[in-house]
Each structure stands twice: as C-alpha cells, then as structure tokens.
Amino acid sequence: MLDSYRRLFRTPGAVAFTLAALPARLSVSMYGVSVVVMVATLRDSYALAGAVSAAGLVAVAANGPWLGRLSDRHGQARVIVPAVLVSTVFAVVLAVCAGADVPAWTLFVAYTAACCTPNVGAMTRARWTVLYPDQEHRHSANALEQALDELCFMLGPVLAALLCTMIAPQAGLIASIVLMLGGSLAFAAQRRTQPVIRPVTAAEREKSPLRVRGVLEVTVTFLFTGMVFGSMEVVTVAYTDSLGRPAAAGVILGLLAAGSAVAGLAFGTIKVRGTTAARFLVCVAGMAVLMQPVLLAGDVWTLGVLLFVAGLATAPTMITSMTLVHELVPESRLTEGMTVTMTGLLIGVSAGASVGGWVVETVGAHRGYATPAIAAALALLVALIGFGPAALGRRRPEPARPG
Fold this sequence. Notes:
Elements lengths: L2 H4 L7 H30 L2 H29 L1 H24 L5 H10 L5 H12 L3 H32 L4 H18 L13 H5 L8 H28 L5 H20 L8 H16 L8 H11 L3 H15 L5 H30 L6 H22 L12
Helix pairs in contact: 2-3, 2-6, 2-7, 2-8, 3-4, 3-5, 3-15, 4-5, 4-8, 6-7, 6-15, 7-8, 7-11, 7-14, 10-11, 10-15, 10-16, 11-13, 11-14, 12-13, 12-14, 12-16
C-alpha cells in the first residue's frame, strides 16, 4: 500500500514542499472552528458566529480564483508572500475586535480582509500534476493530498476547540495565524518544485475555467458538498454545547475527517478503472447515502461513529474531482482551475455555516443536522444532471488541449 506513495517522494524537493505546506493547511482547518467558537463565546450568538464565518469564506471564494490566476502567470512565491502578510495583519485585528466593545460590523470587515490567503492545497496539487503527469501517479498524488487535508481537518478542529475552551476564546485563532504565516512562507521558499510559468493563449485568457465543459458541474456539486461541511461545523459546535460538552465538537468533527483520511489512503492504492466522470458520480452518490443516518444520532458518540462512516465517501469524491479537473483545464491555468472548483466548495461552506447557524437558533441544534443531509442529497442531484450522460457513455466532458 505504501509503495504507491513512496514512489511520489523520489523526486527531489517533493518531501520539502509537502512538509512545508502542512502548517498552513492545518491552519485552514482551525480557522473556521476558531472563529465560530470565539465569536459565539464572546458575543453570545451562534447566528452572528455563523454569519461572520460565512462572510470570511465568501471573501476566500472571491479572492481564490484571482490569486490562482496570478500564481499561474507570475509564480506561486510572488503571490503567497504579500497575500499571507496582509491576511496576518487583519486576522490579528479580528482577534482584538472580537473581545473589544466594538460594533459587530467590525468583525465582518476584519475577517473579510483576513481571508485573502492563497489556496496552498491547490498549489501543492498543481506541483504534483507537473511532477507526475501520468494517470497512475496523479491518482496517488491526489489521494495523498486529500489524506493530508483530512489529517489536518482531523487534528485542526480538535486543537482549535481545546485552545478556545481551555485557554482563551481567541487562542485558537492566534495559533492558526502563526501556523498560516510560518507554513506559507516556508512553502513559498520551495522554488525548485514550483510549476513553470506557461504561456497563456488569447483564447485561454478570455475563457474562464467555468466555461470549460464539466468544470461548472464539478463546481456546483462542490458548492453543495461545501454546505455539508459548513453546516456540520456550526451545528456540531452548537449540539455539543447544548449537551454541556463544548470541547467534544473538535473530536466529533475530527472523526468525520478520520473516516475520510482512511478511505482516501486506501483509495489511492486502487488501480483506477472506467471513466473519471463515472467514478465521480459513484463517489458523490456514496457521500449522499452515508450522510443521511446522521439524523438518527441521539448522543455525542453515536454521532461520532456515524460521521466517521459518512466520511468514508468524502475523500474519494475529492480525489476523483481533482483528477477530473486536471483532465478538463489547460496546464497553463491548472492552479486557477483547481482554485475555481475549490471556490465552489468554499462558497458552499460559507452558505452552510450561515444556514446552519440560522437553523440551530430556529429549530434547535439536533434538528440542525437536517442541513448537511439535505445538502448532500442536492450534491448528488447536481452530479447526476451534470455527469449522468457521461457516466453512461453518451457524452464525455470535453478535455482541454494542452496549454
């Protein structure tokens, strides 16, 4: 099993950029929980916490494709450094404003400005696709990337919840700021594996990745998948708090990521068969089906077990989608294409956090789990509409010509 991944690190610099990116990726997994817990604790409102979190994610969604395009055209390092410095300054402002007697709108402004961080996950995936353009290695690399993401999302929420509840409400955010700054600068310093800047044709410059057949379908599917994650985060924080066990939120969310990590590592060792569109459809269907039993959970640990099972389909979905996007977009806009689809995920996370906070305050924390269950079903519906014909062999997504 490990041989599939060991081969990836034979290329000089692969270990260095992978390890350098880990702190920044861990920071991303801590940000959402840290902000929700901090604002909910200091301002006594889950609705406000969800809204602030949503506003920040909208900013990430707006900035992401633009930063991805700049990375493709000018190089990753020249984009990462100024972006992360600006983000750090405003994240500190957010931590100060949350505990100060200032209007709520300052939280929105500060968090929006803080969310101009580059998508390090998309950048690492872009590096792998340049190092290993063949399908077998690319599949393993995407599986490794997803497993690392899930590892971070398994540890990050736990660490964030513990810091916020046991030290200070702002402690989780401060820790994530330090990790983001250090990890991003270390990753930017790994220039040997940075993708070569490729010339962009006039047609590619004018054509958004969303106009490439198949990319829009993946992006919209990701939007509803993001709603699953965003609502799950807010609802779980509220649910564990209602049971008098607020620190358990990180553990419960970590179990969802753990299930996904296990499945992702196993999936990366499987020799892929059939069309990528068909695999994507099957994976989204699995995610939708496994998410429904979460509604039946009656206590914290039953919920944890059900979320672990639900996570088994998450990583295969993300792995297959990244492979699909790589097949669709030109090499000269690979980072942008991946960032665009991830932007759909982030918009969904934002919407899910906002809707989840509203549902919790309207009908209660436990019933709030209807939000991720419905969102997963909608993701499947969009995937069926977009890729059903391709999965049946009647239409294949239009591949991009090499850039």
